[in-house]
Amino acid sequence: MSTSSFESLNFDEFSLENPTNRFAGRRSRLAYLSHDSTHFAEVEDLFNKGWRHGRKARPQIQGIFKILWPDSNLEPYLQHRKQVQTRVRSRNNAGNEKLLFHGTNRACLLGESSSNVLLCGLKECYLCSILRASFDVKKCGMKNAFKRFGHGIYTTACSSKADDYSCNLSEDACLRTMLVNRVVVGRPYKRYRNAPDLVKPPDGFDSVTGEIGWDLNHEETVCYTNDAVRPAYLIVYGHKPKGLPKPTFKKLMSTMFKTPLVS
Question: Residue 157: inside a domain, yes or no?
Answer without folding.
Answer: yes
